[in-house]
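Human: Here is a favour to ask of a fellow structure person. Comparing notes only helps if you start from a blank page. Give me a protein, with the fold worked out from its sequence. Please set it down just below, with no commentary around it:

Assistant:
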Amino acid sequence: MRRLRKVLASVTAVCTVGALSTAIGVTAADASSSHHGSKSDGGVVTFAEQPGFPPTYIFPLYDGANSGNNDITYLQPLMWLPLYWFGHPTNSAATINYKLSMADPPVFSDGGKTITMKLKHYDWSTGTPVTARDLVFWLNLVLNEKTNFAGTVPGGWMTHVASYSAPSADTFVLKLNKVYNQTYLLYNGLSLLTPIPQQAWDKTSASAAIGTYDKTSAGAKAVYTYLNARSESLSTWDTTALWQVVDGPWHLQPKTGFQVTGQVILIPNKKYSGPNKPKISEFEELPFTSATAEYDALRSGTVDYGYVPTTDLGALGSLKASGFTIEPWYEWGDTILSILFSSSNTKYDSLIDQLYIRQAMDSLIDQPEYIKTILGGYGTPTYGPVPVTPKTNFLASAEKKNPYPYSKSKAKKLLTSHGWTIHSGGTDVCSKPGAGAGECGKGIAAGTKLAVSLMYPSGFPDLDNEVQVLRSAYSAVGIHLTLSEAPENTVLTDAFACFDKPAKTCPASTPDLALWSSPSFTYVPIYYPDGTSMFGCGGTVNPGNYCSKAVNAELTAIETEGNSASMKTLYKYQEYVARQLPDLWLPNAAYQISAISSKLKGVPAQDSTAHIYPSTWTLKS
C-alpha cells in the first residue's frame, strides 16, 4: 500500500534528542548513557522513524491516508498479526511466509469459490484463544465500512463475498460468487484478513457492555465508529484498555507507551504464543522532524537502528568505525510523481490531461543521473507499475527499460509539434489551440501558459535536490514548475483533498503534482503488483482519480484468469500503464540507508515488505 497517512493537527514530531528525552522525562545525557541494558531483561532497542513520519492510526482497519509504513508495518502488526504473513526476517522476498502465518495454507474447493482456512493456536493477551469468530468480527466491520478501508477496491473481491463463517473455533470459511486467480486472491485478498478481539472490542462506546453488535449492519457501523474515534485519539492510545488486548509479540507500555510526538514504547506480550518470542525488554520507535536531526541522534549513540541521509554518505567511514553496519533497504514498491487530474485549477488540469505533455515531463527526468549524483548510487529505477527491485517473475521484459529515457530534445519536439511556442528559461505559451493534430489539445485556450504546481515534503534533502534539478530541466524547455514544500502529512492531506471528488470542490491549496518520500507506493499489504488500488477507477490510493476503461479491463483479467494467462495479461497491463503515465516515474531511493549498531544482533536482512522483526533482535553489551 502506498506510504500514505494523514496526521491530526495536534501531532508534531520532535527534532532533537534533547527535546525527545525531555518529553519522556529524562535528560539527553541520561538517554545517551543508559538506554542500553536499562531493563532487567535483554535491554532496550531504539529504532528511528522516518522524518515527519510518526504513527497516526492504531486500529488495524485503516483508510488510504493512514496506510503508511508508520502504521501498517512499524506499529499494527507488532500487536495484531495478519492471518497470512508476507515477508521474511532472513531475506528480502515479498512472498508468503507460512511459518510466521497464523493459519495453514488455504484450501480451495467448489471450483475455487470456497476457501477454507485452518487457524493455528494463538492466544490473546487476555489468555483467551484467537478464534475464527475474531476473523468474522473483522470482516463484518470491513464489509460495512468499505470506503474506510484502504484494502477495498471497487468491484474487487470484497464485492463478491457470498458468505463467511466460523464453523468451528479454528476454521474460517470464505465463499465467493466469483472465481479468482488463486495466487492473486492469496496475495491481494487473504493477505488482508486480520483477526481482532471480538471478546474485547465488540462494543459501541466506552461504557457499553461487550456484545454481538457486529452481526447487524447498523451495529457493525456503530462499533467501527467507536473504534475509529478511539484510534484517532492519539493521546489516549497507551491509556485505552482496548489497545492492550493483542495477539502479537508486543503491546504499548501502559500509560507511557505513546506520545503524540510520535514516540512509541513497546514491551513484550507475556502471553504471546507464536514463534519468535521477544528477547529484548523494550522496543522504542523515535520520531524526528528531519533526517539531519535523526543523523545527529545516530552519531550520539541514542539510536541502535537508524539511517544515514544521502547528504551524509561521505561520512559512512566514520560510522563504520564507530561500530555501525551500513545496509541499503529496498522496498517492494515504486516512486512516483503523483498527477492529480482533479485539481483546483481546471485550466492546468487540461494540461496534464494531455499524454504528450506527460511524455515530455517524464522524458525530462534523468533517472540514472539522479541515482548516481543525488542518491549516491543507492537507488533503482522505476519504469512502470511493477517494481524492478527485488527481482520477481512479475516484471515484464518490456518494463526493464525506460519507455521515455531522458532527452531534452524529444521533450522540446513533443511540445513544438503540438502547438506550443517555446520560451526556454521562461514559460511556454499555447499558440495553436484546438484538439486536432499539431494543436495544444482539448480545453487549452490560446495563450495558456505551460505552468504546473508541485508540492513535496520538507525534511528530505534528496527529494529537495531532485525537485530542484527537475525544475531546472523543465525550465530549459519552457515548462514552469511552481514548487511548495510542507511536512509530509500536509502534502498527503492536500494531495488527497480531491480524492473521489469533482475538481470544482477541490480547495485552492491542491497542487497539480504531489511527491512524497521514496518509495511512495509499496505493495503492502496488497502484495500482487497489479496496482488496482493505485490505477483502478476509484482505487482507494488513487488521489489523482485516474480512470481508464482499458486498464480496468486488464486488471479484471489479471484477477480472474488462470495463472499462466493472468501473467501474460499482467505483462501487457504494466507495459501499457508505463507508457500512459497516470503518474510520472522517479527512481526508487533505497527506502533508507540503514545504520545498524554492532551491538544489535538478529537483523540478517531487511524485508522488502517493510516489516520489522524486533522479536528476533538481541543486544550485545
